[in-house]
């Protein structure tokens, strides 16, 4: 962002959708589209030439899907902020995109206002999920058995770690923010998973939202 603008790459196999999204983004005063790709393989080639701040990437694409492209891109550029473009029928892939390192999810039918909020949140280092996906997180992603009638007691530090997990910070970022070691962060995460009977970070996100343990921001 040498001139202060957020540089964005759009990766989607539908040219009509890319054009519409590009038009909306380029109308934002702080953002611009610097490149487009129609599949994950094209995106990785483009990434070697461009330096985006944010990538908006479709999950289901020919040649190479968004999950594999996200994983490979973040191996090479770990600070890259990648956001998945999704439809509700992509539910089975959302956990895999989170595991690959996606910073958020946007439904393809988002409004300009939601897109604006999302880009600013992602650029500031937070996760962003389309509001319509909260029901998905609380009802559909997590099919793990829990004892919701049992009150879970979290320590102050566990609540702090949980909030930062939901904000999208990784172990090192959480450690730096709280002035603790990464090993300590891992320990708190293990405790959170055990106490909530969740099996993954998305499970923790779902649990935290459902039980209002974190601020969604």
The average pLDDT score comes to 84
Q: Order of strands across the widest beta sheet?
A: 2-1-3-4-5-6
Do you know the CATH architecture of the largest domain? 3-Layer(aba) Sandwich
Order of helices and strands: EHEHEHEHEHEHHHHH
User: Total domains, how many?
Assistant: 2
What is the name of the CATH topology of the largest domain? Rossmann fold
Number of helical runs?
10
Report the helical percentage.
40-55%
In total, the number of strands is: 6
The top-level CATH class of the largest domain is Alpha Beta
Which structural category fits the helices and strands?
alpha/beta
Q: What's the main sheet like?
A: 6 strands, parallel
Q: Outline the low-pLDDT stretches.
A: none
Output the radius of gyration.
18 Å
Principal-axes geometry comes out as: globular
Classify the beta-strand content into a percent band. 5-15%
The CATH H-level superfamily of the largest domain is Response regulator
Structural descriptors:
Rossmann fold, Arc Repressor Mutant, subunit A, six-stranded parallel β-sheet, 14% strand
Task: Describe what you observe in this structure.
The chain is of the alpha/beta class. The chain folds into two domains: 6-131, Rossmann fold, CATH 3.40.50; 142-210, Winged helix-like DNA-binding domain superfamily/Winged helix DNA-binding domain (Arc Repressor Mutant, subunit A), CATH 1.10.10.10. Helices cover 48% and strands 14% of the residues. The chain has ten helices and six strands. The protein has helices at residues 15-26, 40-47, 66-76, 91-100, 112-123, 134-141, 156-166, 171-178, 182-196, 201-210, and strands at 6-11, 31-37, 54-58, 81-86, 104-107, 128-129. A six-stranded parallel beta sheet has the order 2-1-3-4-5-6, sandwiched between helices. Helix 5 (112-123) links the parallel strand 5 and strand 6 (128-129). Helix 3 runs parallel beside helix 4 (91-100) and helix 8 crosses helix 9. The longest helix is centred in the last third of the chain and has 15 residues, at 182-196. The radius of gyration is 18 Å and the shape is globular. The mean pLDDT is 84.
């Amino acid at each position: 962002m040498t001139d202060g603008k957020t540089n964005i790459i759009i990766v989607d196999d539908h040219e009509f959708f890319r054009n519409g999204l590009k038009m909306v983004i380029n109308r934002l005063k702080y953002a611009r589209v610097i490149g487009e790709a129609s599949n994950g393989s094209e995106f990785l080639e483009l990434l070697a030439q461009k330096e985006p701040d944010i990538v908006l990437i479709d999950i289901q694409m020919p040649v190479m899907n968004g999950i594999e492209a996200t994983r490979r891109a973040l191996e090479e550029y770990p600070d890259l902020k990648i956001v998945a473009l999704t439809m509700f029928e992509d539910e089975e892939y959302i956990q895999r995109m989170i595991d690959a390192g996606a910073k958020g999810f946007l439904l393809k039918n988002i409004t300009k206002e939601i897109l604006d909020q999302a880009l600013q949140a992602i650029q500031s280092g937070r996760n962003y999920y389309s509001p319509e996906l909260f029901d998905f997180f609380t009802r559909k992603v997590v099919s793990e058995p829990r004892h919701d009638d049992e009150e879970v007691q979290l320590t102050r530090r566990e609540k702090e770690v949980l909030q930062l997990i939901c904000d999208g910070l990784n172990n090192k970022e959480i450690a730096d923010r709280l002035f603790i070691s990464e090993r300590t962060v891992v320990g708190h995460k293990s405790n959170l998973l055990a106490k909530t009977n969740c099996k993954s970070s998305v499970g923790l996100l779902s649990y935290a939202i459902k039980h209002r343990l974190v601020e969604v921001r």
